[in-house]
Each structure stands twice: as structure tokens, then as C-alpha cells.
Design brief:
The protein is mostly helical and 266 residues long. 74% of the residues lie in helices and 2% in strands.
Length: 266
């Protein structure tokens, strides 16, 4: 009988793959159909103005949706390709370990933290999925730390990606001072801070944490059951002794009554 040697496609990482495909679709539509207006109006958080005032419209409910949706927007194809490569290399392994629901929650929280920080601290528009990439890199390195090992590859990946984000955000016309360096890279620091928040959330809900917690609860439950069993055994033992003593007393009373009756007959 011939073996079935056909291959089938495996959508192995639903959350990460869907995220990347949506980002590609959005940038494609933005560059070909909407001429740059799609990402600008829907997938962009508006930070502070140059005079320090808020551009965020607190009375507009759609602005709050942008706090989450801005991670799907990318300024150009170069940024999208770099972010997508990192996400596709790291994301599927994390999704396999943490499961799709947890990865979706991590992405959601990271996007929200990034959006809030951008509205409060950044000047100008803020868009992109760099915060998600930082989250994945840090989360993967934390996974290595849990095995009591320090993988040099994750350190290099973190340094290189951070350097890439800083280099792409440098304003050539600005003065070359440390303050200008910080101001030019406020978007990078915002993404990094949001990435740390997302990675910390992932650490709290890591599978080993959940396994340890369930193990502790099971041990407590087993201890409670053993205590109940011991108390039940003690009660049963006491009740058995009481019944045995009572039966012995009744037997002795019956035997003495028979002897008295026989003595009376004699």
C-alpha cells in the first residue's frame, strides 16, 4: 500500500502570522490606494505638539482605539520588513510555549502601554510595531534565564535592534548633544519601556509559573485531604473502642446476671 506523501500548509502561529499579514495589508493599501492617509488617520497615535500641548482628543472615542491599533501601522517598507522578520523568527516559538491567548493578551497590553507613553511623552505622530519586537526579544531572553543560562545571541539581537531603532530615528539637522540624542530617540525609549512591560506580563503568566502554582494548590489540597482522613481515622478508632468497651460491659453484665439466676435456682 502506497504511503501518502502529500504535504499540507500549517498555520502554525495564528496570532503572530495574522499580525504580520495585517500589517503588510495595511501598508500595501496605504501606499497604493489611500496615498498615505490610512495609517495617518487610523493607525497612528498623536503625541504632544511642539509647544507641549496634547494632540490627543480625549472626547473622541476613536482616539482611544488608536492606542491599540497604532502597532499595525508602519512608516515605510524597511521598518515593516525588519519588524516582521524579528516577529516571525521569535514569535512562533513563544506562541507555542505561551499559547495564542496569552500572546494576544501580551500584544494588547504592550500596544496600550506604548500608546499611553507616546501620548504623554512623545512629540509628533507615533506608529509601528517596534514595541512588540522588543517584547518578543525580552520574553525570549527571559525564557533562557529561567533555565539558568544566558544566551549571547539574544543579547546581540537586543543590541542590534536597539541600535537600528536609534539610527533610523536620528535627525541629521539636530545638534549633536546628549539631550538631542535623548529627544531624537524618545520613540525608541517608549517602545523599549512598553516592551519591558509586555515581557514582565509574559513572565508573570509563564507556563512554569502556572505549573508551580497549580502544584502548590494540589499539594495544599492533598494535605487537607490527608488531615481529614487522619481525623476521620481517629474518630473511627475512638468510636470502635467505645463500641467494643460497651459490648464488653454488656457481656459482663449478662454473665453476672446468669450466674445470679443459677445461684438462686440452686
Amino acid at each position: 500500500m502506497a504511503k501518502n506523501s502529500s504535504y499540507k500548509f500549517n498555520y502554525d502561529s495564528p496570532i503572530v502570522l495574522t499580525f504580520v499579514l495585517l500589517s503588510v495589508l495595511i501598508l500595501t493599501l496605504d501606499t497604493t490606494v489611500f496615498k498615505g492617509e490610512l495609517i495617518k488617520n487610523i493607525f497612528t497615535c498623536h503625541g504632544r505638539a511642539l509647544d507641549g500641548s496634547f494632540n490627543f482628543d480625549f472626547k473622541n472615542g476613536f482616539e482611544y482605539l488608536k492606542l491599540f491599533a497604532h502597532v499595525f501601522g508602519n512608516s515605510n517598507w524597511e521598518v515593516l520588513l525588519i519588524n516582521s522578520v524579528f516577529m516571525l523568527l521569535i514569535g512562533p516559538r513563544l506562541e507555542e510555549k505561551y499559547k495564542s491567548t496569552i500572546i494576544f493578551l501580551i500584544i494588547l497590553i504592550t500596544a496600550f502601554v506604548s500608546g499611553i507613553l507616546a501620548v504623554v511623552f512623545c512629540k509628533g505622530d507615533f506608529t509601528g510595531s517596534s514595541c512588540i519586537v522588543f517584547t518578543f526579544i525580552l520574553l525570549a531572553s527571559i525564557t533562557a534565564f529561567s533555565k539558568k543560562t544566558i544566551d549571547f545571541s539574544w543579547i546581540i539581537a537586543f543590541i542590534l535592534y536597539t541600535a537600528y531603532c536609534m539610527v533610523t530615528s536620528i535627525n541629521i539637522e539636530s545638534k549633536k548633544s546628549f539631550v538631542d540624542f535623548l529627544l531624537n530617540n524618545i520613540h525608541t525609549f517608549t517602545d523599549l519601556a512598553a516592551g519591558c512591560a509586555g515581557a514582565f506580563l509574559g513572565y508573570l503568566v509563564s507556563p512554569k509559573k502556572r505549573t508551580a502554582a497549580s502544584g502548590n494548590s494540589n499539594r495544599k489540597a492533598s494535605k487537607g485531604k490527608s488531615k481529614k482522613t487522619d481525623s476521620y481515622d481517629e474518630d473511627s478508632y475512638a468510636q470502635t473502642n467505645y463500641s467494643y468497651t460497651q459490648n464488653s460491659t454488656n457481656s459482663s453484665e449478662n454473665s453476672s446476671s446468669e450466674e445470679t439466676y443459677l445461684g438462686t435456682l440452686n
